[in-house]
Specification:
- By secondary structure, the protein is of the alpha+beta class.
- It has four domains: 83 residues, no CATH class; 384 residues, Kinesin (3-Layer(aba) Sandwich); 93 residues, no CATH class; 127 residues, no CATH class.
- The protein is built from 32 helices and 22 strands.
- The chain has a seven-stranded mixed sheet, with helices on both faces.
- Strand 4 and strand 5 form a beta hairpin.
- Helix 4 packs across helix 24 and helix 12 packs antiparallel against helix 15.
- The longest helix is centred in the last third of the chain and has 99 residues.
- It is extended.
- The relative contact order is 0.08.
- It binds adenosine-5'-triphosphate (ATP).
- Adenosine-5'-triphosphate binds next to helix 7 and strand 5.
Length: 976
């Protein structure tokens, strides 16, 4: 690969750029060693060369600073030691709550927070991807795990209600629990990394409209299933096998037939104890994901069966026409295997040793297999069981953590794929892994380098083009059409012809000779080809490549597993229903390993292309996984492989954020200080209308206005002249301070400018919100005061109306009463008058006949006898109004009001009255006393009561109960 310094040469600069002054600059920069660790963004390094970049990273590593910005990517150097404070929940919250996280120290949390804010701000494309790359052991899995923890922590912090909190905590637990399970089944100890992921994964964290974590989904790529049966020297099988053999309890050992210290040929280096061997953590996590202990037991039983299967060894058959035999000690192993897998012992042996060949529709041949073939068939069974078990686990995890599609709107994807691999012997697996890395590099190049520069040119930016290493040629070599390595491999599988590795090499050379990325070592005798990847040259061995690509699984072996009595195996190998007119499989449609992998990778790239990418480049500082050891050569090769210098150069001068004027105005219009003039406002409105109605309006004029306004907004924000340019931009050091540029149709800006814009927008929005709140409160206060006033008015009106109505009713009632009273009075008067007239004569007679009558007394003038008789037989009742209620003339009873009860000497009174001629008085007398007095009043009468001098004047002579039986009245009216 060309050296990076040469790539810097590739910039379309004058060659004199690399003259003495450049060298002096470099020396001067490097001489100031004390300050090198302060460069937290490599775009500030001057000049940008691999040497200067490397020095900075080394200086920072020495001061325990592991993250450094490199323009649009973040460089993460693996510390190989646990640094708690670097990933503490407090630090996560600090980055989350910071108004401008980019002003904090570079960290993976800055990238995570940026992605989260992008989702919040709905800047297109809203969905985000964080692509973590780097070679094996560089820290990709660790980084992805930390990112997941970060999102889980901030999701918990953001949930407002208790219910939200519980849901988020539940999802968080499950999402985080998916890690130990997937790592136990998909990671293994390799020469480069004790916990190396042997599969690629893309995790989508699903967020709802309020950016709350509602679920997640996992997609996996190309599990290295060959590791189940073949482990390179000093490497190990998947962690789970060691976990069960080391961590099972006595009971479990009995159940799974796993005695302690049992020897398994597929379990090399089991004497090494690793942190990853913790069985309890895996079981706990499985439980949380909904895999109960009986299902777990079922899984581990199958894994134990696979371990025993590895011990089944065959010996050569003496007669080729006869199937080969089992080795003597393998007989017990096959028994245990079949009992653990629930399959028949005879059938398994038969199908491992004898191949079934179907010719045409009817003809079936049986062919005994060689010892090697038997071994391959055994491995094939183990690999297919493990691969299906892994897929089943991923499906269970997804069922447990995935939210319903209606519950989430956006996602943040975390991609953790295996890093670039180059071993002494590389085969199809490495080709696929390196192809995936090429595709990701291509995505990076396309997104940050190629597309950016093309866009700058289209938008009229005076751009000094930077040459970069475009890996399109290598990608074409691997997957291109019509001829590529993959197409030729697939063709071999489709034709199913017997061809040797050398023949395939010849075919490759012939078909792909025009591609500069393929070559071969003329001195090597083993069939191979060398591919010049962006990260370096890799020598691939051709032997077995075609066969691996076919990944043949003999149907009879699948049938055997379908017939298993084991519950889980039945699920992993369901019996497919026969299609009525089932044709023999189309040869052209044979699904090979590479075609399957290419398909899934294409889908992944499609997702990545529709998201906003964020890159984290993990760097491994030394191959021995030692803390605080920085090996320059090893880091240098990684920096070169990921094209860090080009990235820095483009990022330094470039603008990763691009926003059409229209979108820019919609979002940041409110940052404009002077209010737009009417005509401009109209133009803006027109432009909005234009967005909806293409083809209308004067677009050029609109674009000019929008550009002018956008420029004005940006200048208001960053008053320094150099910070915003609407004319030219150069990829040189003088224009480093330019933060934004207005192109023909778009605003180009740096991340820091976007952050500034966003923070100003947030404060402008909060100011406006405050004003709106104030206005609203004033309006509400006024409205309430008015309402209160209106209510009192209404209340007063209603009250006065009610009173008026009441008075009216009272008046009405009073006049009715008055009328009735008068009527009644008149009637009584009439009655009284009539009665008076009728009884006059009769009464007089009667009274005079009464002994002791006053009249008689008057006539006899015997005062003393009168008094006596009167007091004995007469009771007088009187009352102030001068009314005497009496019974009628027939009923002789006196009725009176008690309180006014007085014994009066009525006769005296009456006499007085008569003597004075004041009134005409008629009295009715009875044996009991006066029964009625009839008088025609001729003036006001005043009775004066005096206490009688008589001894018994106050004594009621008779105690008759008073009964009202009728009444008359005396009207005492003043006569004129
Ligand atoms: N930030 C970190 N802090 C402390 N240790 C780390 C950090 N990153 C990585 N490591 C250490 O490095 C080891 C390898 O990291 P990791 O497994 O993440 O590498 P990888 O890039 O995923 O490798 P592979 O591609 O093989 O899966 C980890 O087991 C861990 O011990």
């Amino acid at each position: 690969m060309a050296s990076t310094d040469r790539k810097v040469n590739g910039l379309k600069r004058h060659p004199s750029c690399l003259n003495e002054s450049y060298e002096e600059q470099r020396k001067a920069f490097l001489s100031d060693e004390d300050k090198l660790h302060l460069f937290d963004d490599l775009t500030k390094v001057n000049p940008v060369t691999t040497a200067t970049v490397l020095k900075c990273l080394q200086a920072r590593y020495a001061t325990e600073v592991f993250y450094t910005n490199a323009g649009c990517t973040l460089v993460a150097v693996n510390p190989f030691q646990s640094i708690f404070y670097l990933y503490s929940p407090e630090l996560m919250r600090e980055y989350h709550l910071a108004s401008r996280p980019r002003e904090l120290k570079p960290h993976i949390f800055t990238e995570a927070e940026q992605a989260y804010r992008n989702v919040q701000s709905h800047i297109e494309p809203v969905n985000q991807s964080i692509i973590v790359s780097g070679e094996s052991g560089a820290g990709k899995t660790w980084t992805s795990r930390c990112l997941m923890k970060f999102y889980a922590t901030i999701a918990a912090a953001n949930s407002s209600s208790q219910m939200d909190n519980d849901t988020v905590a539940r999802i968080e637990k499950r999402v985080l629990d998916s890690n130990p399970v997937m790592e136990a089944f998909g990671n293994a100890c390799t020469l480069r990394n004790n916990n190396s992921s042997r599969f690629g994964k893309y995790i989508q964290l699903q967020l709802d409209g309020a950016q709350l974590l509602t679920g997640a989904s996992v997609q996996t790529y190309l599990l290295e299933k060959t590791r189940v049966t073949h482990q390179a020297h000093c490497e190990r099988n998947f962690h789970i096998f060691y976990q069960i053999t080391k961590g099972a309890s006595k009971e479990e050992r009995r159940e799974w037939n796993l005695p302690e210290r049992a020897d398994f040929s597929w379990l090399p280096n089991s004497e090494r104890n690793l942190e990853e061997d913790s069985f309890e953590i895996t079981k706990d996590a499985m439980l949380h994901l909904g895999i109960d202990s009986s299902m777990q037991s079922n899984i581990f039983k199958i894994l134990s069966g696979l371990l025993y299967m590895g011990n089944i060894q065959f010996s050569d058959s003496e007669d080729e026409s006869q199937p080969c035999d089992l080795q003597e000690n393998a007989k017990d192993f096959i028994k245990t295997t079949t009992s653990l897998l629930g399959v028949s012992e005879e059938e398994l042996l038969e199908k491992l040793k004898v191949r079934t060949i179907t010719a045409g529709k009817q003809q079936v041949f049986k062919k005994p297999c060689s010892r090697a073939e038997c071994g391959m068939r055994r491995d094939c069974v183990a690999k297919v069981i493990y691969a299906r078990l892994f897929d089943w686990l991923v499906a269970v995890i997804n069922r447990s953590i995935c939210a319903d599609s209606s519950e989430w709107t956006n996602f943040i994807g975390l991609l953790d794929v295996y890093g670039f691999e180059s071993f002494p012997v590389n085969n199809l697996e490495q080709l696929c892994i390196n192809y995936a890395n090429e595709k990701l590099q291509q995505h990076f190049v396309a997104h940050y380098l190629k597309a950016q520069q093309e866009e700058y040119a289209a938008e009229g930016l005076a751009w000094s083009f930077i040459s970069y290493q475009d890996n399109q040629c290598c990608v074409d070599l691997i997957e291109g059409s019509p001829s590529s390595i993959f197409s030729l491999l697939n063709e071999e599988c489709r034709l199913n012809r017997s061809s040797s590795a050398s023949q395939f090499q010849a075919r490759l050379e012939k078909a792909l000779s025009s591609n500069p990325c393929i070559s071969r070592d003329k001195f090597s005798k083993t069939p191979h080809f060398i591919v010049s990847h962006y990260a370096g040259r890799v020598n691939y061995h051709i032997e077995d490549m075609v066969e691996k690509n076919k990944d043949p699984i003999p149907t009879e072996l699948i049938q055997l597993l379908q017939d298993s009595k084991d519950y889980l195996l039945q699920q992993l190998f369901p019996v497919e229903k026969e299609q009525p007119n089932n044709k023999t499989p189309n040869r052209a449609a044979v699904v090979t390993v590479v075609s399957k992998f290419k398909g899934s990778l294409d889908r992944l790239m499609h997702i990545l292309n529709s998201t906003t990418p964020h890159y984290i480049r993990c760097i491994k500082p030394n191959m021995d996984c030692q803390a605080m050891t920085f090996k320059k050569e090893e880091v240098l090769s990684q920096l070169e492989a990921c094209g860090i210098v080009e990235t820095i150069n483009i990022s330094a001068a470039g603008f990763p954020i691009r926003m059409p004027f229209q979108n820019f105005m919609e979002r940041y219009q409110l940052l404009r200080k002077p209010q737009p003039s009417r005509s401009e406002q109209e133009l803006y409105i027109n432009s909005c209308a234009f967005k909806n109605k293409k083809g209308l309006g004067d677009t050029v004029e609109n674009a000019d206005t929008l550009r002018r306004v956008a420029h004005e907004i940006l200048e208001n924000l960053v008053p320094e002249q150099s910070a915003v340019s609407s004319l030219h931009i150069k990829a040189d050091t003088q224009t480093r301070n330019v933060l934004a540029h207005c192109g023909k149709t778009k605003v180009f800006m740096t991340h820091s400018m976007l952050e500034l814009l966003e923070s100003r927008r947030a404060s402008a929005l909060s100011e406006r919100a405050f004003s709106i709140q104030c206005c609203w409160r004033t309006y509400r206060r006024r409205k309430m005061a008015k309402q209160r006033q209106a209510a009192s008015l209404i209340q007063a009106a209603v009250r006065s109306w009610l009173i008026r109505m009441h008075i009216k009713r009272m008046h009405k009632a009073a006049s009715i009463i008055k009328r009735a009273w008068r009527k009644w009075q008149a009637k009584l008067n009439a009655l009284a008058a009539k009665e008076l007239d009728d009884t006059d004569v009769e009464a007089e007679k009667y009274i005079s006949s009464l002994p002791g009558s006053p009249i008689q007394a008057t006539q006899t003038s015997a005062n003393s006898s009168f008094d006596k008789a009167w007091t004995q037989s007469t009771v007088l009742h009187s009352w102030p109004l001068g009314m005497v209620l009496t019974p009628g003339p027939i009923v002789r009873k006196v009725v009176s009001i008690e309180s006014f009860y007085r014994n009066l000497s009525f006769l005296t009174c009456l006499k007085t009255l008569q003597q004075n001629g004041l009134s005409k008085v008629n009295t009715n007398w009875s044996a009991d006393g006066i029964t009625s007095i009839r008088a025609l009043p001729q003036g006001s009468i005043r009775f004066r009561y005096k206490k009688s001098p008589l001894l018994y004047a106050n004594v009621h002579p008779q105690h008759h109960s008073c009964r009202i039986t009728g009444f008359n009245e005396i009207l005492l009216e003043k006569t004129k």
